[in-house]
Amino acid sequence: MSKIRTAREAAGLVRDGATVAVNSSSGLLCPDHVLKALGERFEDEGAPRNLTTIHPIAAGDMFGTPGVDHIAHPGMITRIIGGSYPSGPSNAEPPKIWQRILAEEVAAYNVPSGIVFDMLREGAAQRPGVLTKVGMETFADPELEGCAMNDSARAAPIVRRVEFDGDTWLHFPALRPDVALIRATTADENGNLTFEDEGATLGAMEMALAAHNCGGIVIAQVRRVAAQGTLKPHDVKVPGILVDVIVEAPDQLQTTATPHDPAISGEVFRPLSSFSLAAFNPGKIMARRVAQELRQGWAVNIGFGISANVPRILIEEGQHGAVTWVIEQGPVGGVPLLDFKFGCASNAEAFVASPHQFSYFQAGGFDCSLLSFLEIDAEGSVNVSRLAATPHRTAGAGGFVDITARAKKIVFSGNFNAGAKMRIEDGRLVIDREGKVAKIVPKVDQVSFSGPRAIAQGQEITYVTERCVLRLLPEGLTVTEIAPGIDLQRDVLDQAATPLRVADDLKVMDAALFRDTPMGLAL
């Protein structure tokens, strides 16, 4: 019997009360056609209702791929477990899923992405759940928020502290999906899946295995169908024995707002000269200063924000290839991309499945991570996951907690406060108007990263801003460098909403950072 179905026929296989896992990262690999058909079925029939959905990384975005918003009708989803969520500008209407969450119509959890993949693997193997220290002393810890995003979730905890083998751990239950929605490029008639046009595989295999082993079904959206026996076995990333239904979607996007970029999928390699370089401004100063923290031969994780420009700094400085970039979606090497294409890389050396990449991160197997911050508090803790006033501006934590849990060295970057107007003149930073919102605060709104735990574990933590560099020391959060032209008291200490220590050997940041020419970076 043929496995090929229309999207609407596939949607008809999802029962009321089902647990549905979706393999996606914003627009990357999002099975949007199937999600759309599910939403249309609900509008027509009022079914399926009361779904639990699982999203290790966000399904959809606010820029043309609705993803989970297709199924965010009142009564359709009653529980959602997400590593991250669709996010976008504060002046835009919040995604429908955020509206459901904020209205307490959906019990919502923000579970670190790597842990969600771990929970699926435990379900696939019929094991009782995940024991981990990832997330301890952060919002994922039940002693703080236990991953709950609203009161509906707080009423049904998803994580608990347990004692095992003489130590304290976090326990997350196994996830056993009834349906896995995954996406690939090509399926043969037997359901074997290849990913030749894609920028990652994410957790396609793990998600399919979890649904299949738990008695569920696997629905694969693909661009095209090939004859059985025509796919090369080494190219098959999910075997047909796990796939129940194939849905063709010839016009599926490769990633957010991108029909197809062959450099993302490794089909061609772009010349380094084709990558745009950052304009000379305070953001570039920060990216340059972050780059100075790197060393030759390192494997370096990179996140959204200022850090995303660091690979372009290395290109400009003739240092491309001096470090190997590794990102949670799975690309290793190459040049991580910006904006809509963030999460993808051009010219990658390899594509690793996200669950394997997260195992690498969770154990601290890499050398350094470059990440952003929304807030830093007096203990060095960081909030990157929640803005209470406009929650949909942030996607939640994603893989941030997995990455920072045991990282040897972390460099956070961001503006010292919000809203300041600045420029660079004659090699100095000039602040024309101060920001009105402090980002160095007594206590962060949400603990995405625990400063005290970092001190206890001996992690090396640096915070780079446009006007100063701070380090987390056992004695406290300490200013170690200031930008040329900056007054320590007026522009730094008085602008923080919590007292800061000042290093005895306070330095001025490297003057080369503030000149609009290559700075002679040596790693």
UniProtKB/TrEMBL annotation:
Record keyword Metal-binding present: no
Any single GO BP term: ketone body catabolic process
Gene3D superfamilies: Glutaconate Coenzyme A-transferase
Record-linked InterPro entries: 3-oxoacid_CoA-transferase, CoA_trans_fam_I, NagB/RpiA_transferase-like
EC number per UniProt: 2.8.3.8
GO molecular function: acetate CoA-transferase activity
Primary enzyme class: transferase
SUPFAM superfamilies xrefs: NagB/RpiA/CoA transferase-like
Domain of life (superkingdom): Bacteria
Active site: 328 (5-glutamyl coenzyme a thioester intermediate)
Membrane-crossing residue ranges in chain numbering: none
Keyword Endoplasmic reticulum (UniProt): no
Catalytically driven reaction(s): an acyl-CoA + acetate = a carboxylate + acetyl-CoA
Keywords for the protein's UniProt record, in alphabetical order: Transferase
Function: CoA transferase having broad substrate specificity for short-chain acyl-CoA thioesters with the activity decreasing when the length of the carboxylic acid chain exceeds four carbons.
Family listed: Belongs to the 3-oxoacid CoA-transferase family.
The protein, known as: Acetate CoA-transferase YdiF
Source organism per UniProt: Paracoccus alcaliphilus
